[in-house]
Each structure stands twice: as structure tokens, then as C-alpha cells.
Amino acid sequence: MDQHYLKQLYNNVWFSKLPLHFQDYLITHSSIHSLEKDQAVFYTGDHFDGLYAVLDGSIRLGYIDIEGNQAVSAIVEPIMWFGEISLVDQQTTFSRCDLYAKQYYFTNSCKRDR
């Protein structure tokens, strides 16, 4: 992982308070992805596949109703974490997650074995 991103992680309040072995686990079991504007990270109803951290840019969390209207519940920016609800309750995702603008990065950690 790029040193810039590692520095961001270690400066994050939540991440910095984790035990070192868990920090190491998250870093070694993660991957960095670059997506274009409006590409989805996941859709409503998708199965849980990780805990996410925004490293650069911003990600829009929300949903689209049956008439196609979009509702935004949050804009997630560096270095915010999301995906933890499905990690805890083991249910499918309840929101749509897509990129707010072009070329932003996120990391996906803690993948559950299927």
C-alpha cells in the first residue's frame, strides 16, 4: 500500500486505536481500487464483502426508489469507514454506494470467507 495511504490510515482516530495485530490484518487483507464517477461500489441487496475506507475522493451512500429517484444519506470522504453494518448483522447491504466524482479510491478489507 502506498505510504501516503498508510499515513492516512494511521492518522485516523478509529484505525489508530485498534490493536496492532488487527491493523496489520486490515492492511494485509485489503486492496485498493480506483473507480470512475457513478460506478457502484455495491448495490442495495448485495451480499457483504468487506469493510471499506475512503482514501481519496468521496463516495455517495444512498438508495434509488422504484421511480428512479435518488436519495443520498451520506457523502463519505477520507478517511471515513463504511460497510460495518453488514459486517455486524451479516445481512445484505441496505444502501447503494457509488462514486460522487471521477477517479476516487477506496480499500476493501475484512472479507468474509464464503
What's the topology here?
Layout: H1 3-11, H2 13-16, H3 20-28, E1 31-35, E2 40-42, E3 51-56, E4 59-64, E5 70-76, E6 81-82, H4 84-89, E7 96-99, E8 104-109
Antiparallel strand pairs: 1-8, 2-7, 3-6, 3-8, 4-5, 4-7
Structure description:
The protein is globular and about 45 Å long. The protein starts with a helix and ends in a 5-residue tail after the last strand. The longest helix is centred in the N-terminal third of the chain and has 9 residues, at 3-11. By secondary structure, the chain is α+β, with helices and mostly antiparallel strands. It has 4 helices and 8 strands, in the order αααββββββαββ. Strand 4 (59-64) and strand 5 (70-76) form a beta hairpin. The strands form 2 sheets. It has a 4-stranded antiparallel β-sheet. Residues 101-105 have low confidence and may be disordered.
